[in-house]
Design a protein that fits this description.
Blueprint (H helix, E strand, L loop, with lengths): L3 E5 L6 H12 L2 E4 L1 H10 L3 H6 L3 H4 L7 H10 L3 H15 L5 E5 L2 H5 L5 E6 L2 H12 L3 H17 L12 E4 L5 H16 L3
Parallel strand pairs: 1-3, 1-4, 2-3, 4-5
The structure holds cytidine-5'-diphosphate.
């Protein structure tokens, strides 16, 4: 069975948690596409070369979750050749046999517009910054400033900007527990799977 769940949304909206839970629930493979851009940004040197030569080892670095790696990722993510170099891998993953969940910014709009389920997971900037601050610590006001800066860069870029696909189900998790958000996502996938 080919079945793709595309989960897009701004920084720290809960995409990762929801994606992992949906993948585990249905036995689908999961790809965190943000990790690809984080690895390219962290590699240094020419980002286009880094994207063309990305290896498993690059994705296994333990410094990819930092705020700095997030900023570096969103700076290389505006480069069309970087995005182009990562398309084939992501499309192959999305349409693999057995089902796949991909989370990112442009999965439902550009990478896999034919995805069977599209979710756009969002929350207010304050709520998202607070969640990210609980993970990374430091100064909460600075975390908020960085979240807002990164969202602006992601939404304003010319190629594959962050936006909900027209046919995406929007999940605003500002006032939702993570369990409730996961339950809503699972219900949507189950509803669509019943039609297969
Ligand atoms: O986890 P968080 O939402 O903070 O970030 P991420 O998903 O790891 O993505 C890091 C950065 O990579 C984003 O701010 C985007 O600039 C970029 N990205 C992208 O352009 N397209 C994707 N499909 C995924 C990430």
């Amino acid at each position: 069975m080919i079945f793709t769940v595309a989960i897009d949304g701004p920084a720290a909206a809960g995409k990762g948690t929801i994606s992992r839970a949906v993948a585990a629930h249905f036995g689908f493979a999961h790809l965190d596409t943000g990790l690809l851009y984080r690895a390219v940004g962290a590699k240094g040197g020419d980002p286009v070369e880094a994207a063309r030569n990305l290896t498993e080892g690059d994705l296994g670095r333990d410094d990819l979750r930092t705020l700095e790696a997030g900023q570096a990722a969103s700076r290389v993510a505006v480069i069309p050749e970087v995005r182009a170099a990562l398309v084939t891998f992501q499309r192959g993953f999305a349409r693999r046999e057995g089902g796949a969940v991909l989370d990112g910014r442009d999965i439902g709009t550009v990478i896999c517009p034919e995805a069977e389920v599209k979710l756009f997971v969002t929350a207010s900037a304050q709520v998202r910054a607070h969640r990210r601050w609980l993970e990374v610590g430091g100064d909460e006001a600075q975390v908020l400033a960085e979240v807002i800066e990164r969202d602006k860069r992601d939404a304003d870029r010319a190629v594959s900007p962050l936006k909900a696909a027209e046919d995406a189900l929007v999940l605003d998790t500002s006032a939702m527990t993570i369990d409730a958000a996961v339950a809503a996502a699972v219900a949507e996938v189950r509803r669509r799977l019943a039609k297969e």
